[in-house]
Model the fold of this input.
Amino acid sequence: MPEVFKLGFTSFARLRGVLVVFCGDNLKFGPATKKALAPVEQVVRRAAAADRFTGKSGSTLDIVAPQDLDLPRLVVIGTGKETEPKSRDIVKLGGTAMGKVPAAATQATIFAEFAAGALKPEEAADLALGVRLRAYSFDRYKTKRKEGEERADKVEIHVACANPGAADKASARATGLADGVVLARDLINEPANVLYPGEFARRASGLAKLGVNVEVFDVPAMRKLGMGALLGVGQGSVHDSRLVVMRWNGGKRGVEPVAFIGKGVCFDTGGISIKPAQGMEDMKGDMAGAACVVGLMHALAARKAKVNAVGAIGLVENMPDGKAQRPGDIVKTMSGQTIEIINTDAEGRLVLADVLHYVNKRFKPKFMINLATLTGAIIVALGQEYAGLFSNDDKLVEQLNKAGEETGERVWRMPLGPEYDKMIDSKFADMKNTGGRWAGSITAAQLLQRFVDKTPWAHLDIAGTALGSPQTDINKSWSSGWGVRLLERLVADYYER
Ligand code: BES
Ligand code: MN
Ligand code: ZN
Done:
């Protein structure tokens, strides 16, 4: 990110810096765009003909220093047929637009108008959200820049629209949401020598300034609660484990909350069942579920969402050590059930088992949704496009499906059932922490389900969607912040009074 990044709304009269506009099929411009481009109409037509640009969705036309307009650059982005673009399409276009602004540019104006006319205030806000997400980069540890990678330290982006005042109001939600995604991305990208459980808890505590109630439980406090599974995972690390409980009470007093639970393994070496060296550095992101919960709580609190929401994250570091837990160990969970450790690398489910039970018992929530980079097997099954969804509640599944389609953070339901559940029965304890090589993502989910009782629950396995993300129009970073937009949408559409 540039040192200073300003993003605001303005009217169509303001033409400053790099100008980005949209056009539909057959070079069809909206009225305000047409008016602004009037002095260069012929230039645009000739450039389009030379480039065979017709406004097809996804295509772009770049004109440097167009004659008769005092602009360093004019960019035209095709939107094609424009049949009722969804929120996710507009966010994506904001990302595409920002991607066309050269890194060295200090100012740009993006016209929030399609061929069909000016975008509504909420749509202009979505466009700005895409701009923010695209502009994100994590480079706080880079002390030098290569030649040719120079960038402006100060960048101002103006989104031009029909009613800047209304767009500004509508953007309150989008701004908090963008801040939430950025917060999640920062936490995930941060290396594990900086972001260990104590430091993560400290950063989550920062939500207090938005009116979120934050409680931090240390090891003795968790021992008192009987969280033997979570504590077993963290016992080999010099960094003590933490449990963080965040509460946002924007709903009616006394109404039971919705609850979000995150896996926060700040680094996952695998423990005594140690992982191979290749790619292990990615395991600094094994706290992406927890990061998403923090980003979500930020987004909800920032726009004072009318909902009672609980966020709970189990923070540990999974290390091999003389004090680390061993395969064969049996731990007692807070729920009273016992777990035999077969593989110390199947640690996320152990952490979640205690946090799910704790949240269920203390808050009796309307539902619980947990997020976790839980299994490599989900990447084999679904790649990076869909997160794995496991649930005991069809209504929640339906709502998550819809929110996924709206935001583009999509989920795919996987099966659960007694046949899979049997696979984690243990010779020595109530259950074991792995079920063998087959159906690895499902048996992991079955273990979680043993700690949720009858409460409506969904588990999102985000190992594929959260890390090493494909480079998209709205993300050029290693971490995506996946899930913040999905769950913010779920709450907004179904759970606010
Ligand atoms: N954190 C990993 C899963 C993971 C893998 C996340 C790749 C992101 C990218 C998890 O703790 C793990 O190690 N799972 C094991 C489970 C196995 C030991 C049953 C796995 O998937 O191999
Ligand atoms: Mn692991
Ligand atoms: Zn893990």
About this structure: The CA atoms of residues 99 and 140 lie 21 Å apart. The chain has a mean pLDDT of 96. The chain has 15 helices and 19 strands.
